[in-house]
Specification:
mainly alpha
Amino acid sequence: MTGAMFGFILWSIVGCLMIGLGVYSFFSKRPMGFWANIKTFQVTDFKGYNAAMGKLFCGFGAVFILLGLPLLMGQNSPWIIVSVLGILAEAIAAMVIYTVVIEKKYRS
């Protein structure tokens, strides 16, 4: 197994953990948090909120795995910048989606 393949496998495991967090969110009995160390706000419809959070985390994980594909091109590939900048944009997009769409819709 080459180093590039090993790196992509580790990258994919992290993406699968995010997808697993999304699946857990679908079945959670209490509102799922987004920000670390901050108590979740009062939610009007926690099942809908958790479904929205599940979609957000699953989508994040899937895009995360796709952004890892340049790792397969080997060491010193200039395409790794796509992964780095893509993750940056994806994280900002997830924060914006959470704040503007999900929090606005489900806050009491």
